[in-house]
Amino acid sequence: MDGGASSLNAHVLVLNRHWMPIRVTDARRAFSLLVRELAEVIHVDDGAYTAHSFENWADLSKVRERFDARQYEWVKTVRMHVAVPKVIRLLGYDRLPAQDVKLNRRNIFARDRSLCQYCGKHFPTSELSLDHIHPRSQGGKSTWENLVCACVHCNARKGGRTPEQAHMKLIRKAVKPKRNPVISLRLGTEKYASWRQFLDHAYWSVELK
Q: In angstroms, rounded to a whole number, what is the distance separating the alpha carbons of residues 50 and 142?
C-alpha cells in the first residue's frame, strides 16, 4: 500500500470490541489491522454508523472518491485509491481505555492552546517554554497545576519568582484536563466530527500512540 506520508500518518480513532474508544493510531497501523481482519471500519453518517470489512470499504472508496473525496485522506494501492477510515473497531479486544492523561510538554501546549498564560498571545511552539508557576527554586513541583505555557519574554520577565512576586497574572488557572487535550483540539474540527459520539467527556481520556 502506497500513499503520502501525511495520508499514512492520518489519525484514526480505535474502539475496542465493546465500542469503547481506547486510543488514536495512524492510518498505516489501522490498515494493517483491517487487512489482517483484526478490525473493521466504522463509518458514521448523520449520527448512524455501519461496519465494513476492508474489502467492502475498498469497494465503497470507489464511490466516495467520486462524490466526497475531500472529506477523506487517501492512500494508493496498485489497483485503487482507498479512503483512510476515521474510526475502526477491534474485533477481539475488550480491555478498557486508560483513565489518566499523561503530563508532558505536548499535552500542556495543547491544554493551553499555545497561548502564553501571562500575556495571552498565541505563539508557535518553538517560541514557547514551560513555566513553573511556583518556581522550582522555591520548591515548586512539575504538576498540571504548576506548569503553564509562557513566551520567552514573559518567562524571562517572571524569572525565578511567583506571579505575585513578579506582579504578573495568569490568564486562567492551571488545571489537569479530564481528557487528552490533543483530542479535545481535534474534536473542534469537522474532519474529526465522526469521533464525537464515541467520546464520553465524563470518564475517559485517550493517549496518542
A: 44
